[in-house]
Amino acid sequence: MLEKLKSWARILKRDVLAVYIAARDERVSWGVKLLAWATAAYALSPIDLIPDFIPVIGYLDDLILLPLAVWLIVRLMPSGLMVEFRAEAELRFATAKPVSRWAAVAVVAIWLFCAAAMRWWFRRLGDV
Question: How far, in Å, are 43, 69, 81, 86, 128 from residue 28 at the CA level?
Fold first, then answer.
């Protein structure tokens, strides 16, 4: 069972990198490209939008949402292109682990925006 999970995780990592490669390819339609950019940025960000220390919900994105997004992109992508992107991802994965620093900045910006919005909202409630 543990080997199956490890294998699944390796395949998911490869497919995330393949989705990143697809997002940069001009042969991919803009709608799929947009979804691929968002998915790859989130997956490769060193910071989670929902931190893993939050019980249940913290791992929900890693265990359900990310695989569903990758699955959807793979389904929307022409199969010949996905085979090519997966092969390139295998080669790249052997050399270095990809990380998206811009996605980390975006996640922090979302946290700050949410904190500011909550502060504004609570201050408004106090004025009532």
Answer: 19, 16, 8, 14, 51
CA distance to 98, 106, 116, 119, 128, per residue, from 44 (Å):
7, 12, 26, 30, 43
Domain ranges of the chain: 2-127
Q: How many CB atoms lie within 10 A of CB 36?
A: 28
Instruction: Report residue 71 as tokens.
Output: 């699955």
Count of other CB atoms within 10 angstroms of residue 92: 16
What burial letters (b/e) apply to 66-75, b meaning 16+ CB within 10 Å? bbebbeebbe
Q: Cα(58)–Cα(48) distance, rounded to whole angstroms? A: 8
Burial class (CB in 10 A: 0-12, 13-18, 19+), 93: middle
- Per-position pLDDT tens, the chain of length 128: 778 877 877 888 888 889 988 988 889 989 999 999 888 887 877 777 677 777 777 777 778 888 899 999 999 988 788 889 988 888 887 666 666 677 677 777 877 888 888 888 888 887 65
Q: How far apart are CA 4 and CA 45, in angstroms?
A: 25
